[in-house]
Fold:
Amino acid sequence: MNTTTKKPRNRTMPRASKEADFLRARQVAALLGVGLSTVWLWKKQGKLKAYKLSERVTVFKRDEIERVFKLKPDNKEVA
Structure:
């Protein structure tokens, strides 16, 4: 009889590679130096596109934020 226990298999993708691709609203606000309500206003106005992961989780694509606000990779705005 085999007494070793099997570890549950992790079937999700590694978080490190995907985590940086998406930002929560609070992270977007910090990145852009604006208030959280401004991020939600811009989403409502269509300036930012949001993606619902679940009923309570909404994310924004980092590359879209950088493109819309013309951010360099080091998080500084281009004049």
Notes: The chain is about 40% helix and 15% strand.
